[in-house]
Every structure is written in C-alpha cells, then in structure tokens.
Amino acid sequence: MDLKKIFGTILTVLGIGGLIYTAILFSNDSGTTKMLIVYGVLGAIFFFSGVGLIKRD
Fold first, then answer.
1. Buried b / exposed e across 8-43, counting CB within 10 Å, b at 16+?
2. Confidence of residue 2 (pLDDT cuts 50, 70, 90)
3. Model pTM above 0.90
4. Comparing C-alpha atoms, which of 52, 45, 53 is closest to residue 15?
5. What is the torsional sign of CA 27, 30, 34, 35?
6. Which residues cross the membrane (predicted)?
7. 9: Cβ contacts below 8 Å, ≥ 6 apart
8. Phi and psi of 23, rounded to 5°?
9. Are 46 and 4 contacting, i.e. CB atoms less than 8 angstroms apart?
10. What tens digit of pLDDT does each residue of 3-38 get?
C-alpha cells in the first residue's frame, strides 16, 4: 500500500469521527455553537482531504 493511501485513510477516518462527534453534540444540545462549528469544519477538512488523497493516484 502506498504511503499516500495510508495517510488518506487515516485522515478520512479522523474526519468521519469528527463529523460523528459533531452530530452527537448537536443532537444532545450539549455543545456550544462555537464547538459545533470548529469540530464540524475540522471533520469536514480531514474527511475531504483524506478522500482526495485516496482518489488521486
């Protein structure tokens, strides 16, 4: 396996985790708006950059 694909997989999994954590905070009403925005944006950035690394080959 290529190093780029491994790193892309790690970023994708971290991004999915961040997005799931944001959804849990949102559904429980326990997160502030600032927390939701930060975790959601970071999760999306990690997810899409990881997918981009996996796709590019």
1. beebbebbeebbebbeebeeeeebeeeeeeebbebb
2. confident
3. no
4. 45
5. negative
6. 6-24, 36-54
7. 50, 54
8. -65, -40
9. no
10. 889 999 999 999 999 999 999 999 988 778 899 999
For the chain, the first-to-last Cα distance in angstroms comes to 12
The domain spans of the chain are: 3-55
The residues near 44 (Cβ < 8 Å, ≥ 6 apart) are: 15, 18, 19
- DSSP string computed for 6-48: HHHHHHHHHHHHHHHHHHHHHHHT-S-HHHHHHHHHHHHHHHH
